[in-house]
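=== Structure Prediction Worksheet ===
Name of assembly: unnamed complex
Input type: mixed (protein and possibly other molecules)
Chain count: two
Listed entries:
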Amino acid sequence: MRLNKQILILFFGLYYGLLFGQECIINITGSVVDLGTGKGLGLVHVHVQELELEQISDSTGKFVFRGVCPGKYHFSFSHIGCESYDLFLVIDQDTMIEVQMDHSFHVSKGVAVKGKHTNHSIQRVELIGEKAIEENPNANLGSMIEGVTGVSTLKNGNAIAKPVVHGLYGNRITILNHGIAQAGQQWGNDHSPEIDPQSANRISVIKGVSALQYPGSNLGSVILIQSKKIVPEPHLHGKVGYFFESNGLSNGTHLQLQKGAPFLSWRLNISAKQSGDRKTPDYFLTNTGQKELNASLQLEKRWSQRSFGEFYISSYNTELGVLRGSHIGNLTDLNEAFDRTIPFFTQNEFSYTIASPKQVVHHHLLKVHQKFYITDSLSLDLTYAAQLNNRKEFDVRRGGRSDLPALSLRQLNQYAAAQIEKELKADWKLIGGIQFNYIDNTNNAETGIIPLIPDYISFKNSAYFLVKKKRKRSLLEMGARYDHVQQNVATISQTLPREILRYANQFHNWSSSLDWSLPLGAHKELVSNIGLAMRNPAINELYSGGLHQGVSGIELGNPDLKSERSVKGTVALNGDIREKWFFELLGYYQQIGNYFYLQPQNQFQLTIRGAFPVFKYEQTDAQLYGADGSILRQISTSWSAKFKYSYLRGDDLSNKTPLIFMPSNNAGLDLVYELPKHIEIGKSELENTAISVTNRYVFKQSHLNIDQDFIAAPDAYFLLGLKASTNAQWSKSRLHFFVKVSNALNTNYRDYLNRLRYFADDLGMNITIGGNLKF
Amino acid sequence: MTTKLKNTLLILCLGVTLFGCEKKPDDPVIPNEEEVITTLILTLTLSGGGVERVFSFTDLDGDGGNNPVITIDTLAANTTYSGTLVLLNQQKSPEEDITEEVKEESAEHQFFYEVNASNVTVSYRDKDTNGRPLGVSTEFVTGASESGSLKITLRHEPNKSAAGVDAGQIQNAGGETDIEVSFNLEVK
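=== Predicted Assembly ===
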């Protein structure tokens, strides 16, 4: 559940209030309204810190505090299964507070489908709110959003996870961190997005087509990592969290501090975590530890009524080990690894040590954003951002060279954008903008290895416009976008003598989209969109060359690639039946012409390390289609059950073969029991206590030919998860405590999208205990 | 927004664009490929002297690029040879002897000789720092005339204490393959 920012505060009896001001006769009345149904929302805990009083809203959403003295008060609103929301008010008269809450009586908790209420297009947006982020402090971005239907993760062990949405990942989807397209190395399957989810208050997945105003690829979905605006309240607030994980003996902590002030509002986040070797049900995964240290600072400044500035800086730093037994020299090693039940190099003892193979990654982001309201209906946004990415990957090497990175890349990205928004009469809205993106990607020469991808400088100049129209409850949106891409590349030849070969490429990408949403009666809504998009080949697809040990193959780029052309359509139906059954159904179809993929060649390249298969980037026509569905049944006020299912199929139309790396179909059933009453422990009360059971079944990826992989896809598997969470409210602080168990049955399984399936089982049972203290 | 502001923005952007697109990456530093093994040479000599038998595998440009050059030789029947293996990086001038590097880390390396011929046997004639075989020096004993093949494998960080590894059986050795080359073997 998410509290809408729109809070209506109505003041009554202003002059009476002044007259009787110093007497404690003020009444604060209020009501909480469910934004989804327009009805009052009961069982909301309204806590007033200074009064040390708490009221619970009645079934019509009303609450009242009587006989309150004038003063400054911190209110906190909380409801089961949702984030608490804080409000600071100066009370000197009878006050009525109306809080609109976007309650979870959509299917998934925190789903919002709003055209005008958010800045997004009319697309299916799934939200992961602050509570879910807090309850997953051990998760990286990929694992965090894995629970969203239609989203999977492409992994290389537990610590490296790339999100896959509707079958697309890497360069084909866009990840926006605080409004800025994530740069860094996105081309490899073992490049995890360099973002700390704990720095965010919410993560949204837009599962539609080309969200045109965002830079990055417009081919598919967009993942947004956002922070809430800093609440304008002049006291220091924050939260401090800690977690422990049984699998990997991980410890992590997170501190957030914030203060809203007229001069400058600020929010600081610091998080740190360390884990050691993870464990399957039977053995340790040697060298799979991870260390992470992240920080971010957000500043907000209201220069005037019409001018608002924002500054954001973040630093992400990690060192992560890759399973020692997954580092192989050639195909013989790989075939031997398939036959083993326990990987080579497996130690019998747990360790926090991180040795080669490992990755050391630093990613820093700086963003400055300024918004001007030129008139009430016209606004201008100016944004500048810079990102610096340093990635070093270490292999097991001979002659003491394991301390030298085998891959060492430094990328500088600069971005500048201007956007105008104009509201016209009759609910028309126009948005237009221009964007410039600069990437300078350099291989550091320290490796002693010819780099897999070359040095390059790339420029992208873009312009777009969107038209939005609202008519009653229907929304219509259409737009177009143009990108001009220039790539200046300097490669090193594969043959001797080593020469520097230079290439200059230009691409013109056109994208457009049409979105609309129609209400079907009071309880249902049809949302649909269609988008056309182009994506130019990325540097690795054009020029990668050499042995990619991770895939035991020689990967060759193809300088002749033409841009991909995609058309994608989605239709979603969502709503409820008698407010007991809630459903969201989404179907999609995408055809991508000139789809880039790695085609195994009919030859083996003989090297001194043996013969390797050769994979070359080629183009084909591909189609992806699927459906995501979820149904929630509110059985009683305490019990709810949610069923979800994702289906996806990808085909290479030209070669009449399945597409590889497509997520398996999966189904889930979540049961949630929310305690209607408080639990009293001494003087404290535990409230908003909930217990849930999650069941997840992942089907075998059977849509694959035998010759498309070294070994057959792993079998289907079932995972059971348990979770309990509760809250305790004290006068000035609030504790949120949770325990969860993943893979509770300690099942042995392997997942098709995890490269480590070639070598080892996936993680066994993991118990996480954590808590957050808000103050 | 005023036209003036719009124009200013447009010019600013064009400026950035025109100025920017000219920029090209600096010449990349061609890495010093110290670790590369371009060449493996197996030399078999008779204890009493005589013509050397040489097997070599040479891939000067490393993985990818041009195909390697392989030369083979014939062995005499019913003969005992002493074998010496040399690894070179011939990209360097003068060429670098990688065998030394392997010998320095002898405990972490082992060569395996898999013979697919019924009458040829290969045995180790050297030891690492732990008294286990390394495989730079070997002894080849041939029997009756036949033809077959020889596969030489260098494993990095094998489990040298696993069963049969001492005797040159690769099956339980594990580790990572640094070299794997095959030669046709002719015994006359």
